[in-house]
Amino acid sequence: MTRFGRAWRVCVVLLVAAGITAGTLGEDDRTWPFAPMVQFAFKVDINGEIHSLGLEGVDTQGRRVDIPLGYGGIGLERAEIEGQRERIVREPNRLQAVAVMWAAYAPDRPRLARVDMVDTVSTLRDSRVAGRQRVTVATWSVPDPANPGER
After folding, report:
1. What order of strands is seen across the sheet that includes strand 49-59?
2. pLDDT tens digit string along 72-111?
3. Do 116 and 135 meet the contact criterion of CB atoms below 8 Å apart?
4. Separation in Å, CA 136 to CA 56, 65, 85
5. Phi then psi for 144, rounded to 5 degrees?
6. DSSP for residue 1
7. For the residues of 84-119, what is the DSSP string, one character each?
8. Which residue from 5, 59, 81, 82 puts its CA 20 to 30 A from 91's CA?
9. How far apart are CA 11 and CA 17, in angstroms?
10. Does the bond joining 33 to the residue before it have cis omega, within 30 degrees of 0?
11. CB 81 within 8 A of CB 92
């Protein structure tokens, strides 16, 4: 390898290391991949709580259904729901989009009559789950379950 080739590679490594160091100290997701994704980098109190948002629904036959998120689900990731939590709480009509996605995801299943955003709260004692509680934080009744895409 030539001297120039080695110098060029060393410069690149030093620049990447400097970017990672600066991003880590700043803890800013906007500088990712030169910073940690702080949404996953947080400390949990060994006697605290862990919150996990999800979606549930009640179909037109009155059955409660879990609405799958992520790969193979309705097309929403959990992080998208968590990022919109306060907006959905203020404007639960935003959950109408979930009923539309459900109709496309499960065309042979009964439509959703209601969509709930639920928070599963896991209580920790000495770093072990001591209990779980599901809390409904927003609810939306679908105006026309047979045609959720129509308004």
Report:
1. 64-67, 49-59, 112-125, 128-141
2. 889 888 888 988 999 999 999 999 999 999 999 989 999 9
3. no
4. 9, 14, 12
5. -135, 85
6. -
7. THHHHHH-GGGGHHHHHHHHHH-TTSPPEEEEEEEE
8. 59
9. 10
10. yes
11. no
Integer CA distances (angstroms), 1 to 6, 10, 71, in order: 7, 13, 45
What secondary structure letter does DSSP report for 28?
-
Token pair of 117, please?
A: 């955003």
Residue 22 DSSP label: H
pTM metric for this prediction? 0.69
Q: Assess contact for 63 and 95: CB atoms under 8 A.
A: no
Token code pair at residue 19: 């970017």
Give the burial string for 8-19 (b: 16+ CB within 10 Å, else e).
Answer: eeeeeeeeeeee
Q: CB–CB of 145/111 below 8 Å?
A: yes
Domain regions of the chain by residue span = 1-41, 49-141
